[in-house]
Amino acid sequence: MIWDRLLRPWTSKYPEYYYEDLRRFQPRHYYEQPVMPYTHRDRRHRHRHHGLDQSMRSTVTKEMLELHNRHRARHCARPLTISQRLNRIAQDYAEHLAATSKFEHSGTKFEGQHMGENLYMNWISDGHVTVSTKAAVKFWYDEIALHDFDRPTFSKETGHFTQMVWKDSRKMGVGVALSPDKREVYFVTTYFPGGNIIGPGTFEKNVLPPNC
After folding, report:
1. What are phi and psi of 20, to 5 degrees?
2. Transmembrane stretches, by residue range (predicted)?
């Protein structure tokens, strides 16, 4: 698959504990794109993840939208709205990640166009992981500390943040799933139109400083 050179992926993997196996517990901020794109119609692994009930998924979706829009308001960006189609794409891919223990971007397009995508994974070595929407959003938004508003451009260390507040994005979808042993939780958020597009003035226009 050939990827548009102007688009860059970003991911995060943030464990709860760091003190057992340091090699395994290294947080990651950037992953290569997958060789082949995932399609949300490929559901071969869905039976191997541990699903959350509809009530829990609805709560996560509501919280994710509210937290995004709270941060977007600080950056003079319009509130996002939930798209059920983007929701299905995000949920299917979260379940795929939970079933396979992979952590990479899907490469999915939406209506044939670039779709933004944020990923977050948290895990523990024993017991059941906490499903925390606030932790995922905080991890993404805290990348603001690394973003240079005076000379804004794409950075793999700040791509979650810049997509969250990208002014031209209008819709989002939310997915969440647990691994079979409930020790890993995967969040996927999808955005359309997708952000982080490199071009003259795109970041100046779409990623405004707080309180503008």
Report:
1. -95, -70
2. none
Residue 35 forms part of a structural domain: no
- Calculate the CA 72 to chain-centre distance: 15
Q: Which domain holds residue 72?
A: 50-206
Q: Is 71 inside any structural domain?
A: yes
Q: What is the CATH number of the domain that holds 171?
A: 3.40.33.10
Angle between helices 133-141 and 54-74 in degrees, nearest 10: 30
Q: What is the mean pLDDT of the chain?
A: 78
User: CA–CA separation, 94 vs 36, rounded Å?
Assistant: 17
CA separation for the pair 118, 24 (Å, rounded): 22
β-strand 116-123 against 184-192: which pairing, if any? Answer: antiparallel
For the ranges 2-11, 149-158, 177-186, which has the lowest average pLDDT?
A: 2-11
What is the spatial distance between Cα 140 and Cα 10, in angstroms, rounded to a whole number? 10
Q: What is the pLDDT of residues 133-166, one digit of tens each?
A: 999 999 999 999 999 999 998 988 999 999 999 9
Q: How many domains does the chain have?
A: 1
The answer to whether position 211 is within a domain reads no
Contacts of 101 (CB under 8 A, 6+ apart): 179, 184
- Does residue 1 lie within any of the structural domains? no
